[in-house]
Amino acid sequence: xxxxxxGGALTVQFISGTYVVLxxxxxxxxxxxxxxxxxxxxxxLQNAExxxxxxxxxxxxxxxxxxxxxxxSSREHPFQTFQWADYSVKPGFKYKYKVIALRGKPELLQESxxxxxIINTESEITEKHAVFFNRGAAASQEYARRxxxxxxxxxxxxxxxxxxxxxEEALLGFIAKAKNKSYSLLAAVYEFEYPSILKALKGASxxxxxxxxxxxxxxxxxxxxxEKAITEMDISNICKPRKNTLQIAHNKxxxxxxxxxxxxxxxxxxxxxENGIFGHSNVGHVIKDAAVAQAYFSYWQQLxxxxxxxxxxxxxxxxxxxxxxxxxxxETLPVFSPHKGLAFLKWYASLAGSAxxxxxxxxxxxxxxxxxxxxxQKDNVLxxxxxxxxxxxxxxxxxxxxxxxxxxxVVAVGNNIKINAFDRWLAEMYSIIKGPRVPFIHxxxxxxxxxxxxxxxxxxxxxxxxxxxxxxxENMVVIRGNKKVADIYLGEFMRxxxxxxxxxxxxxxxxxxxxxxxxxxxxxxxxxxYGNTSRAMRRKYFSGVKE
Length: 547
Prior knowledge:
About 50% of the residues are buried. The protein has helices spanning about 140-145, 150-155, 155-165, 165-175, 195-205, 220-235, 275-280, 290-305, 310-320, 345-355, 370-375, 395-405, 465-470, 485-505, 535-545, and strands at about 1-5, 10-15, 20-25, 35-45, 50, 55, 70-75, 85, 95-105, 110-120, 130-135, 185-190, 210-215, 240, 255-260, 260-270, 285, 330-335, 360-365, 380-385, 410-415, 445-450, 455-460, 475-480. The strands form five sheets. A seven-stranded mixed β-sheet has the order 11-17-16-15-12-13-14, with helices on both faces. By secondary structure, it is of the alpha+beta class. It folds into three domains: about 1-120, Immunoglobulin-like (Sandwich); about 130-315, Endonuclease Chain A (Endonuclease, Chain A, 2-Layer Sandwich); about 330-535, Endonuclease, Chain A (2-Layer Sandwich). Helices cover about 30% and strands about 25% of the residues. The chain starts with a strand and ends with a helix. Helix 4 (about 165-175) packs parallel to helix 5 (about 195-205).
């Protein structure tokens, strides 16, 4: 849901997903004198609860010195930014927001322009798409506050529920739909070891449903862990190894069939592992569309025969075509791998390059050169990248550092607060498991002009890389024109971006002239939000203003 509202010189745009409401604010440059920031009040209209959104920075003059790990009301210590978000909303709820521009002095804040709106958050369950993001933020102040920075394996269910944020529950709910012999549940997975999911699949099979899981069985550590878990759960009768891959069987999808007809698909980036469900960031995406489910089923049948990689490539060349340049492809287009060559990867890059307003992408293992060319452009398109790491070589890191110096390109890299850089910050854990390959950002999705009337969302298991296109078993969906799906993905992208951008900033060489622990007691904090800067571009994009 998107809504723009005004109060005098103040313009506010709200973009609501399921668990996130993005709030973009704008005040013209000639009206910002004396602006100390914004206070945001939220009223839960279903429970009559009124709260002020809270932050962690305070004015030095009115700092309550409440110790580390605390947060404070924005009415007393406002947000000095033109973009904020509420991450504590619930799906399918109605809220009233009031955004207030505060001026005066820290000791005596005065309300000036005010803008209000009633917002409905999206439901997790929709007619065609249902999207579930885990929290993806074990490295967070909130986790440190709630669970004293202990591993969830030491805390128990409460920590896992908080980290899952509905992702595990949604996958268990999808499996539970296969409740009797009228149903079949077919899966293709990479990591396959988390007990609750394996147990649910076993239960579905024992309840009469046909269950068959194709798991990665190339001779490596992942295979050994998969087969250990399969043996311990005693489900070898419903599991079949996928051995004849060119590289890895990297899919993570489930197909639900009723009376032998495919009806729904679960896809996304989530491996069936502790880190996949609860640790690094991931999404599960349910698509209730018979045509899409049939496409997945036809692909799964090839995997089930364990055809070799080159045979699978040939089948995909004949059955999974690249859209023609001007072909209005369907709203939801499945794309499978491996394909011959890199035509699909180049197509993704062309879609990224078609953005006229903004582009948002996640990268778990560095940025492929096709997308580097898209990001490395100085123009009027806002481009933001969220990365687990900048790359595996010094040259790759240097290329990202070059891109991020462009005023229209912004990059955030996963990180955690390792020490108390400021008195009020709690140290954060690195990962919930020992030695993960991907500790922070595991999502694989792209958003092209998400706030337009014709957004494009691409999501799935593939890392926008050469290998994910031409050697791995992979799946993606390209979703065109669905504003609800785009709003959900954008909210979650910006939640993760804001989270990790701040943590990365703490690793930069400090400027001794800047007090990063306190708010600025005058309006000079707004300087970087006007002119030819990335913050100015974000101010305009998220508030919806044209200047």
